[in-house]
Every structure is written in C-alpha cells, then in structure tokens.
Amino acid sequence: MGNNCCFRSRPVAVNHHNSDTTKSRSPETERAENSQENGGIMVGKNISESQEDVKEEVRLESEANTSTTTKKIMPSSGRILTPNLKIFTLAELKSATRNFRPDTVLGEGGFGRVFRGWVDHKTYAPSKAGVGMAVAVKKSNPDSSQGLEEWQAEVKFLGKFSHPNLVKLLGYCWEESQFLLVYEYMQKGSLENHLFRNGGEPLSWETRLKIAIEAAKGLDYLHTSEKSVIYRDFKASNILLDGAFHAKLSDFGLAKFGPLNGNSHITTRVMGTYGYAAPEYVATGHLYVKSDVYGFGVVLLEMLTGLRALDTNRPSNKHNLVEWANPSLSSKSKLKKIMDPRLEKNYPINGAMKAGELILKCLEGDPKKRPSMNDVLDDLVRISEMKEKSKERKSKDKESHQRSPIHRKHGGKDIPYI
Question: Active site includes 251?
C-alpha cells in the first residue's frame, strides 16, 4: 500500500483450452476450466443467478505482440469454494465499516482502499464501532486494473495457508461487481510507516531484528510448503505489525506457485514494485524462488538505513538505495555512516556488520548464489544472539567497573577525593 511505483500490467487471461472463443460450453465444462485456472479452487456462481449471467469471453489483441489473448468478463457476483473462509455480504461489510466512511480508511494501494470495521468475535456478524473484534476490509477500486486476478490470488493462497507470520484472511465478498477481503486487524500498521514516515514510532535494533526474523519465517514457510509459493512482492508496506510488533506478511495478490518437475524457474509477466524486484526477473520474466530473497535483502537494507529502496527526492547518486549503499556494507567505518540515525547508535556494530554481509548475499546478481530463506533465518538468529551477548558483556563490565563518583582506587582501598 506504499507510494512506490509499481510496474503492473493489466491482467489478461490466456485461453489455454480452446482457440474458438465463440464456441458455447456447458456450465460443467466452464467450472472445470475455472478450477484449473485458479489452482484447483472452484469459482462458482450464486445459485440465484440466471443462466444468461455465465461469463463471456472477448477477443483482445495483446499490446506486447500479435498473439491473441482473451479477457474474461466476470459475473457481477459469485463465490470461491473454500471451507476455511466466511462469505460476507456487501450489506454486512457496509454495516461493519459504517458504509465505508472516510474516517475508517487505514490505507490505500493498487487494489483499492483498506477500511477498519468491527465484527462479532465468534460469528463475524457486523457490530458497532468499538464492540467486538476489529478487522481490516480491503475494497477493490472500480478503476483498478488488478481487481479480480489479485482478489482470486489472495483467496487462493491465504484461504489455503495458515502460519503465525502470515496475515489471517477471515473471509471475502464478491457482490455488485465489487471484490472485498476481510483480514485480521494489525494494530501497528505496516513496517513502512515506522521506517519512513514522520511521526512513526521509531524501532529499536532489537525490534527490527525481531521483525526481520518473523518476516523471514513467513517467507521460508511459503518457499518450503508442499507447493512452493513465490511471494513476488516482498516490501516494507506488505509487512504488517500487531500490537506487540509481531510481523506478518500481507497482500498475496501477486503470489505464484513455484516451478515443478525440477525446473529452476517459472516465466511470467513482470509485476511487482520497482526497487524490490530481482534483476533477473525484471530483465527476463524468469521468476525463481530466490527472487524473493533479493526483495528480502532490499527490505533488510531499508531496516538498517531507514531509507526507502527508491527515492527521487534524494541526491541523484542516492536515488537507488541498493546501488548507493552496496559499497558501504563490507566496511565498518562506511556502514556506521549509513546506519539509521534514529537508532541513535544503539546497536552492536558486529551485529550490524553481519547484517550487512547477509544483505550482500541476498542481493547477489545470480539467484543460484543467494541463500535460501532458511539460511537467511539462521543468520538472523545468530545476529540476534550476538546482540544479546553484547548486552550481557556491557552489563557485566558496568557492574565490575561501577564506582561511586566521589571515590577513587588507591592501594587496594577506596578513598574519597579531596
């Protein structure tokens, strides 16, 4: 939901099943095709809809080449068959958010706005403001070019996967040509807010490491799941924080299942956020599991420096954080100069140096040379332990050397200064 420039093209679905788009198909055939296109999740129509509402297909010429693709015009309402999620009505979500009042807006992104609402803890029925459980309701922008495809991806992935470091999707709504998602509410907002925005609560070194470790756990879980998932949009604005600064990954609109049958990568449209996307993906459209590791390295660099990955308001040689900071990450004296001043030098320099080394590994140009997220996680835990040992040493040194300010040591005895 940040202001970073996104290179997202308008989603256009390719019809892999039949080149004759005018040929009529039975509802059974259509449902089977939908199931394949959505990773095995069935897209079904509401029972009350008429047969004439079955979606049409319109031929479009791709702007990138002369090949013919198809764009699907979806019915105005529907549901995705998944047992873990509640299907909300639009009326329920209007009630929960007080008709999407402007003062309930939590943020805004490419998909649309996010509103805070209130529901009952057990039934998820809408409740009065301040009563029950707070939720975040993401409502599609009618002008969004991402809309349906990202909405389906969110339901597909978050409806299937559950982990302490992934934001919990409670339910969804698809009604009156609007797509909505209902999540658990994260009280502290995004990591982006705390790193870059004026008035944001400064994060200590310990808290930053905690967030990095928990975000790494979420990404490692996705990469090592039965069907490896490539997150594809790892950035500070997609890391949400609860009241205790526990980190959870959000926004799975661009997520993709990873390569199969021993393949090293998948090939897909280049979508994501400038500054975070891996160079091999931007250049070729080849998406590796370790393309996510590059994005993680960029965010870790942001956490060290307190600077955005891209910022044209900085001097021209500093627009791109990775290019500017890279030479400083292996030098102790240079690293000290680029560390976030809001840390007020309250960090172990050896831990910061190890973090710099880890960032350089994550930013390797060759994805094969980057560490796995499991290896990244191990390194972060070791850096955290270094921090704790450093604090213990300082505490012991302080205790052993602490003396009264009006005494000095002389001949093995304390005597007062005169």
Answer: no
For residue 139, say whether it is annotated as part of any ligand binding site: yes
Cα-based angle 204, 215, 172 (whole degrees, multiple of 5) = 120
From the candidates 20, 120, 143, 233, which is the catalytic residue? 233
| Token pair belonging to 215 | 């975000």
What's the rounded Cα separation, in Å, for the pair 220 and 210?
15
Strands 56-61 and 68-73: what pairing?
antiparallel
Burial of 134: CB neighbours in 10 Å, binned 0-12, 13-18, 19+ = middle
Q: Give the angle subtended at the CA of 297 by the CAs of 294 and 300, to the nearest 5°.
A: 155
CATH number for domain 86-184, candidates 3.40.640.10, 3.40.190.10, 3.30.200.20, 3.40.50.300:
3.30.200.20
Domain 189-385, second-level architecture: Orthogonal Bundle (1.10)
Reported as a single tens digit per residue, the pLDDT across 277-294 is 999 999 999 999 999 999
Task: Quote the pLDDT of residue 318.
Answer: 94
